[in-house]
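Re: that chain you flagged

S.,

Sorry for the slow reply, it's been a week of failed gels. I finally had a moment to sit down with the sequence you sent. For the record, here it is as I used it:
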Amino acid sequence: MSGKSKVLLGLLLFNGLSATAGGLALMTDWIPEQASWVRDTDFPATTSRV
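Prediction finished late last night. Pasting the structure tokens below so you have them in one place:
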């Protein structure tokens, strides 16, 4: 495996792990939702949880 391939693989793994950790943190309310995150978007500021 060349040096470039190792760097790209490392970046891909970091991206995947950080996306997974961030998604889990949002789903478990470790990071609370804030209405300001969806301000000026088409998404509603309030969410209904089922």
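What I noticed first: The mean pLDDT is 84.

Talk soon,
D.
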